[in-house]
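Open question from group meeting: does this chain pack into something compact, or does most of it stay loose? Before anyone orders reagents, we agreed to write out a predicted structure and look at it together. Recording both the input and the output here so the notebook holds the full record.
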Amino acid sequence: MKLKYTLLVTALASTTLHAEVNISGFASMTGGQVLSGSGVPQFGLEPTFLADYPIVSAYKEDLSFSPESLIGLQISSDLGEGLSVTGQIVARGANDYDAEFEWAYASYEINDNWTFQVGKKRLPLFYYSDFYDVGYAYVWMRAPADNYTWQIFNYEGANLLYSGAIGDWGISANVYTGREDDTENKLLSEFFFQTPTREIWEDILGGVVQLSYDWLELRVTHMRYTNKRFRNGEPELWNGKDSRDGKFYGLAANADFGNVFILTEFNRLDLDGDLDTYMISAGYRFDTITPYIMYSNFEQKDGDDPEKHDTRAVGVRWDFHPSAAFKVQYDKVEDDSTALAVAGDSESLTFGIDLVF
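Structure tokens returned:
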């Protein structure tokens, strides 16, 4: 893995003699705290608001600016004749600002409609997956945590992109395949199991289709994969087997009427039973001020200890600069899991600045 990233940096640097290297960036400077909460006594967990599951961005009762603050750089170079290379480096407060390559891939434009890519990219499960870290790109403080709960969010492999139109409808599509082997998964190791956990998703095969027409945008997605897991080096077994197959389905439908907008996303994971999540949000743009509301829900229906929690949020975004927005958001989480709650009930307040450069 490190060799691949080294080769990417070397390739980007060597192209400066005969190709233009473009650098862009994004950052979020965010603070917040839990106003009240139950915590989870069984885990010894104090009142906590788990704002970002994959990164384990968790706020406590003391004001903190670390959980969601980050800075990222995207480096790309056009090598000519349809070939380009891209890398993205992100440093997160939740990881002590240790900078890591999270994207590293090459692209080849076959023609005006088709592009082939290979390397490490974000797994395109959700509507906001491709720009999940760029807080400036969406209205809320963060994409709803109840929806974006998965422990794996990147993959290594290949994908084929299409962009075109059918009549008055714009259409884009993505077919992808690959695998991800996270040797010490942060969510499972540090939060849920609190023991070193290796999470593997292999034989990934998925597709995304996105349609847009005037005020309406639709996105449908499907993915299947095989899951393997090791805890303290020992394989986890499900019904006596060391692997299990998962199928993911997603639908997003967004309506934007200029000042008024409605955003929705519905997902299902078929993995040892059904796991359903959904989100609905609405807002109104008053020039540079955008107040909004949001509701999200997570429910795992299978087993004797179903996981169930939801979040109600209200907030406002102020675009005080062409490249920066100030946001403040209040979240109320109700954790109704029957035996062991995830993070317990909580009320929290977060605020910060998202910017792009």
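Observations to bring back to the group:
The chain is about 5% helix and 60% strand.
The longest strand covers residues 21-37.
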